Amino acid sequence: MPVTPPAAAVPTTRPAPAFRGRIGRDARSGHYAVPGRYRLHLSLSCSRCLRIAITHSLLGLDEACPVTVLPAVPDGPAGEHSALRPLYEASAHRYSGAATAPVLSEEWSGRIVSTHAPDILRDLARRFATAGPELYPCGAETEIRDIEQVCAQDIEENAQRAGCATTDAAEQAAALDRLIATLDSLERRLTHCEYLLGDQLTGADVELWVTLVQLDTVHRWHLAAAAVHRIAEHPALWAYARRLAALPAFGRHLDLDGIARRHHAHCQGLEAAGAAVQILDWAAHTAPRTPAAHG
Known about the structure:
The chain is mostly helical. The protein contains ten helices and four strands. It is globular, with a radius of gyration of 19 Å.
Protein backbone atom coordinates (compact mmCIF):
# COMPACT_ATOMS: atom_id res chain seq x y z
CA MET A 1 0.00 0.00 0.00
CA PRO A 2 2.09 2.96 -1.19
CA VAL A 3 2.19 6.31 0.52
CA THR A 4 0.48 8.87 -1.70
CA PRO A 5 2.42 12.08 -1.19
CA PRO A 6 0.54 15.36 -1.29
CA ALA A 7 1.81 18.24 -3.38
CA ALA A 8 5.44 18.55 -2.41
CA ALA A 9 7.03 21.68 -1.10
CA VAL A 10 9.88 23.23 -3.04
CA PRO A 11 13.02 21.33 -1.93
CA THR A 12 15.46 23.13 0.31
CA THR A 13 18.80 23.70 -1.43
CA ARG A 14 21.58 21.75 0.24
CA PRO A 15 25.27 21.67 -0.64
CA ALA A 16 26.35 18.58 -2.53
CA PRO A 17 28.35 16.10 -0.45
CA ALA A 18 32.07 16.67 -0.88
CA PHE A 19 32.96 12.97 -1.16
CA ARG A 20 30.99 10.21 -2.86
CA GLY A 21 33.22 7.12 -2.75
CA ARG A 22 31.48 3.74 -2.57
CA ILE A 23 32.37 0.40 -1.00
CA GLY A 24 32.54 -2.29 -3.67
CA ARG A 25 32.17 -6.05 -3.64
CA ASP A 26 35.81 -7.09 -3.97
CA ALA A 27 39.40 -5.91 -4.36
CA ARG A 28 38.83 -4.82 -7.96
CA SER A 29 36.62 -1.97 -6.72
CA GLY A 30 39.41 -0.13 -4.88
CA HIS A 31 37.33 0.50 -1.78
CA TYR A 32 36.17 -2.94 -0.75
CA ALA A 33 34.81 -4.29 2.51
CA VAL A 34 37.47 -5.40 4.98
CA PRO A 35 36.76 -5.49 8.73
CA GLY A 36 38.64 -2.70 10.48
CA ARG A 37 39.56 -0.85 7.29
CA TYR A 38 36.95 1.91 7.69
CA ARG A 39 35.73 4.17 10.49
CA LEU A 40 32.56 6.21 10.94
CA HIS A 41 32.62 9.69 12.47
CA LEU A 42 29.16 10.59 13.77
CA SER A 43 27.45 13.27 15.85
CA LEU A 44 24.28 11.70 17.24
CA SER A 45 22.44 15.04 17.43
CA CYS A 46 22.56 15.18 13.60
CA SER A 47 19.67 13.38 11.92
CA ARG A 48 21.85 12.00 9.11
CA CYS A 49 24.37 10.65 11.61
CA LEU A 50 21.60 9.21 13.79
CA ARG A 51 20.28 7.18 10.84
CA ILE A 52 23.75 5.77 10.25
CA ALA A 53 24.29 4.96 13.95
CA ILE A 54 20.98 3.06 14.10
CA THR A 55 21.77 1.13 10.93
CA HIS A 56 25.27 0.35 12.22
CA SER A 57 23.77 -1.10 15.44
CA LEU A 58 21.01 -3.05 13.70
CA LEU A 59 23.67 -4.77 11.60
CA GLY A 60 26.06 -5.41 14.52
CA LEU A 61 29.05 -3.66 12.93
CA ASP A 62 30.90 -2.44 16.04
CA GLU A 63 33.96 -4.58 15.26
CA ALA A 64 33.81 -4.42 11.45
CA CYS A 65 33.53 -0.64 11.26
CA PRO A 66 34.30 1.27 14.49
CA VAL A 67 32.62 4.57 15.32
CA THR A 68 34.13 7.79 16.62
CA VAL A 69 31.44 9.87 18.34
CA LEU A 70 31.70 13.62 17.82
CA PRO A 71 30.29 16.34 20.12
CA ALA A 72 26.58 17.11 19.84
CA VAL A 73 27.20 20.76 19.00
CA PRO A 74 29.74 21.46 16.21
CA ASP A 75 32.53 23.75 17.37
CA GLY A 76 33.06 25.59 14.08
CA PRO A 77 31.09 27.58 11.49
CA ALA A 78 28.61 25.95 9.09
CA GLY A 79 28.27 22.89 11.32
CA GLU A 80 31.99 22.11 11.25
CA HIS A 81 33.67 19.69 13.67
CA SER A 82 37.28 20.79 14.05
CA ALA A 83 38.29 17.19 14.78
CA LEU A 84 37.39 16.32 11.19
CA ARG A 85 39.44 19.10 9.59
CA PRO A 86 42.65 16.99 9.23
CA LEU A 87 40.69 14.25 7.44
CA TYR A 88 39.14 16.71 4.99
CA GLU A 89 42.45 18.44 4.30
CA ALA A 90 44.20 15.09 3.76
CA SER A 91 41.49 14.05 1.34
CA ALA A 92 41.21 17.16 -0.86
CA HIS A 93 44.02 19.58 -1.68
CA ARG A 94 43.28 23.05 -0.28
CA TYR A 95 39.84 21.97 0.91
CA SER A 96 37.96 25.14 1.82
CA GLY A 97 34.53 23.85 2.79
CA ALA A 98 33.20 22.96 6.23
CA ALA A 99 34.43 19.73 7.85
CA THR A 100 31.02 18.25 8.66
CA ALA A 101 29.69 14.86 9.75
CA PRO A 102 28.87 12.17 8.82
CA VAL A 103 32.17 10.85 7.51
CA LEU A 104 33.17 7.37 6.44
CA SER A 105 36.97 7.31 6.40
CA GLU A 106 39.57 4.72 5.48
CA GLU A 107 42.03 3.87 8.22
CA TRP A 108 44.66 2.61 5.75
CA SER A 109 45.05 5.92 3.92
CA GLY A 110 43.70 8.37 6.51
CA ARG A 111 41.35 9.81 3.89
CA ILE A 112 37.62 10.21 3.47
CA VAL A 113 35.64 7.71 1.43
CA SER A 114 32.18 9.31 1.68
CA THR A 115 30.22 12.05 3.39
CA HIS A 116 26.95 11.14 1.65
CA ALA A 117 24.63 9.53 4.20
CA PRO A 118 22.35 7.57 1.80
CA ASP A 119 25.38 5.92 0.15
CA ILE A 120 26.96 5.14 3.52
CA LEU A 121 23.72 3.55 4.76
CA ARG A 122 23.44 1.30 1.72
CA ASP A 123 27.11 0.31 1.71
CA LEU A 124 26.99 -0.68 5.39
CA ALA A 125 23.94 -2.85 4.72
CA ARG A 126 25.09 -4.40 1.45
CA ARG A 127 28.84 -4.76 1.90
CA PHE A 128 29.41 -5.33 5.61
CA ALA A 129 26.28 -6.92 7.05
CA THR A 130 26.46 -10.57 8.02
CA ALA A 131 23.62 -10.43 10.54
CA GLY A 132 20.57 -8.36 11.37
CA PRO A 133 17.61 -7.40 9.18
CA GLU A 134 17.84 -7.00 5.42
CA LEU A 135 17.44 -3.24 5.43
CA TYR A 136 17.53 -2.73 1.66
CA PRO A 137 15.85 -5.85 0.28
CA CYS A 138 15.92 -6.60 -3.42
CA GLY A 139 12.99 -4.96 -5.19
CA ALA A 140 12.28 -2.44 -2.41
CA GLU A 141 14.74 0.30 -3.40
CA THR A 142 12.14 2.45 -5.18
CA GLU A 143 9.77 2.32 -2.20
CA ILE A 144 12.56 3.18 0.21
CA ARG A 145 13.66 6.15 -1.90
CA ASP A 146 10.03 7.30 -2.04
CA ILE A 147 9.89 7.23 1.76
CA GLU A 148 13.13 9.21 1.93
CA GLN A 149 11.58 11.87 -0.30
CA VAL A 150 8.35 11.91 1.70
CA CYS A 151 10.34 12.39 4.93
CA ALA A 152 12.57 15.14 3.55
CA GLN A 153 10.01 17.12 1.57
CA ASP A 154 6.51 16.32 2.76
CA ILE A 155 7.31 16.12 6.46
CA GLU A 156 10.47 18.08 7.31
CA GLU A 157 10.21 20.90 4.78
CA ASN A 158 6.51 21.42 5.40
CA ALA A 159 7.10 21.37 9.17
CA GLN A 160 9.74 24.07 8.72
CA ARG A 161 7.43 26.22 6.61
CA ALA A 162 4.49 25.74 8.96
CA GLY A 163 6.60 27.06 11.83
CA CYS A 164 8.52 29.79 10.01
CA ALA A 165 7.76 33.17 11.57
CA THR A 166 8.66 35.01 8.36
CA THR A 167 6.18 33.02 6.24
CA ASP A 168 2.71 34.50 5.80
CA ALA A 169 -0.22 32.84 7.54
CA ALA A 170 -1.72 31.39 4.36
CA GLU A 171 1.51 29.61 3.41
CA GLN A 172 1.96 28.37 6.96
CA ALA A 173 -1.55 26.90 6.89
CA ALA A 174 -0.98 25.31 3.47
CA ALA A 175 2.31 23.76 4.63
CA LEU A 176 0.63 22.38 7.75
CA ASP A 177 -2.17 20.89 5.66
CA ARG A 178 0.40 19.17 3.41
CA LEU A 179 2.21 17.85 6.47
CA ILE A 180 -1.00 16.49 8.02
CA ALA A 181 -2.01 14.86 4.72
CA THR A 182 1.32 13.02 4.66
CA LEU A 183 0.94 11.89 8.26
CA ASP A 184 -2.62 10.73 7.48
CA SER A 185 -1.26 8.56 4.66
CA LEU A 186 1.40 7.05 6.91
CA GLU A 187 -1.19 6.52 9.65
CA ARG A 188 -3.36 4.47 7.26
CA ARG A 189 -0.38 2.34 6.27
CA LEU A 190 0.78 1.68 9.83
CA THR A 191 -2.75 0.83 10.97
CA HIS A 192 -2.45 -2.35 8.90
CA CYS A 193 1.32 -3.02 8.90
CA GLU A 194 3.88 -3.42 11.67
CA TYR A 195 6.52 -1.67 9.55
CA LEU A 196 6.35 0.60 6.53
CA LEU A 197 7.05 -2.15 4.01
CA GLY A 198 5.09 -4.89 5.75
CA ASP A 199 6.25 -7.28 8.47
CA GLN A 200 10.01 -6.62 8.16
CA LEU A 201 11.98 -3.67 9.44
CA THR A 202 13.86 -1.92 6.62
CA GLY A 203 15.82 1.24 5.91
CA ALA A 204 12.49 3.00 5.32
CA ASP A 205 11.68 2.59 9.02
CA VAL A 206 15.03 4.03 10.08
CA GLU A 207 14.35 7.00 7.80
CA LEU A 208 10.84 7.66 9.12
CA TRP A 209 11.69 7.12 12.79
CA VAL A 210 14.47 9.71 12.76
CA THR A 211 12.15 12.10 10.91
CA LEU A 212 9.53 11.68 13.64
CA VAL A 213 12.19 12.33 16.28
CA GLN A 214 13.06 15.57 14.48
CA LEU A 215 9.41 16.53 14.14
CA ASP A 216 8.81 16.22 17.88
CA THR A 217 12.16 17.39 19.28
CA VAL A 218 13.10 20.13 16.79
CA HIS A 219 10.26 21.37 14.55
CA ARG A 220 7.69 21.33 17.37
CA TRP A 221 9.48 24.29 19.00
CA HIS A 222 8.25 26.59 16.23
CA LEU A 223 4.70 25.32 15.74
CA ALA A 224 1.46 26.55 17.26
CA ALA A 225 -0.07 24.36 19.93
CA ALA A 226 -3.06 23.58 17.69
CA ALA A 227 -0.71 22.40 14.95
CA VAL A 228 1.13 20.09 17.34
CA HIS A 229 -2.19 18.63 18.52
CA ARG A 230 -3.11 17.88 14.88
CA ILE A 231 0.25 16.18 14.37
CA ALA A 232 -0.22 14.11 17.54
CA GLU A 233 -3.63 12.83 16.39
CA HIS A 234 -2.08 9.85 14.59
CA PRO A 235 -2.12 7.05 17.17
CA ALA A 236 -0.75 4.27 14.95
CA LEU A 237 2.12 6.45 13.75
CA TRP A 238 3.24 7.49 17.23
CA ALA A 239 2.74 3.99 18.66
CA TYR A 240 5.08 2.80 15.90
CA ALA A 241 7.61 5.48 16.89
CA ARG A 242 7.35 4.43 20.54
CA ARG A 243 7.78 0.75 19.66
CA LEU A 244 10.96 1.40 17.67
CA ALA A 245 12.32 3.72 20.39
CA ALA A 246 12.23 0.76 22.80
CA LEU A 247 14.59 -1.25 20.55
CA PRO A 248 18.21 -0.87 21.75
CA ALA A 249 19.52 -0.15 18.23
CA PHE A 250 17.23 2.89 18.11
CA GLY A 251 16.84 4.08 21.69
CA ARG A 252 20.42 3.90 22.89
CA HIS A 253 21.53 6.41 20.26
CA LEU A 254 18.86 8.99 21.05
CA ASP A 255 20.70 11.94 22.59
CA LEU A 256 17.78 14.18 23.53
CA ASP A 257 19.93 16.71 25.37
CA GLY A 258 22.37 16.87 22.45
CA ILE A 259 19.56 17.40 19.92
CA ALA A 260 18.16 20.24 22.03
CA ARG A 261 21.56 21.90 22.48
CA ARG A 262 22.40 21.62 18.78
CA HIS A 263 19.04 23.08 17.81
CA HIS A 264 19.17 26.01 20.21
CA ALA A 265 22.81 26.76 19.37
CA HIS A 266 22.04 27.41 15.71
CA CYS A 267 18.31 28.13 15.37
CA GLN A 268 17.27 31.73 14.73
CA GLY A 269 13.52 31.05 14.80
CA LEU A 270 11.05 32.09 17.46
CA GLU A 271 9.71 29.64 20.02
CA ALA A 272 5.97 29.04 19.67
CA ALA A 273 3.23 27.68 21.93
CA GLY A 274 3.68 24.14 20.55
CA ALA A 275 7.06 23.93 22.25
CA ALA A 276 5.26 22.99 25.46
CA VAL A 277 3.17 20.22 23.84
CA GLN A 278 5.47 17.19 23.69
CA ILE A 279 4.02 14.46 21.49
CA LEU A 280 6.01 11.50 22.79
CA ASP A 281 7.94 11.02 26.02
CA TRP A 282 11.01 9.75 24.20
CA ALA A 283 13.09 9.37 27.37
CA ALA A 284 10.50 7.05 28.92
CA HIS A 285 10.35 4.76 25.91
CA THR A 286 14.00 4.44 25.00
CA ALA A 287 16.31 1.65 26.08
CA PRO A 288 19.08 2.61 28.52
CA ARG A 289 21.94 4.20 26.60
CA THR A 290 25.38 2.63 26.61
CA PRO A 291 28.48 4.52 25.53
CA ALA A 292 29.16 4.24 21.83
CA ALA A 293 32.57 3.17 20.62
CA HIS A 294 35.20 5.89 20.43
CA GLY A 295 38.29 6.00 18.35
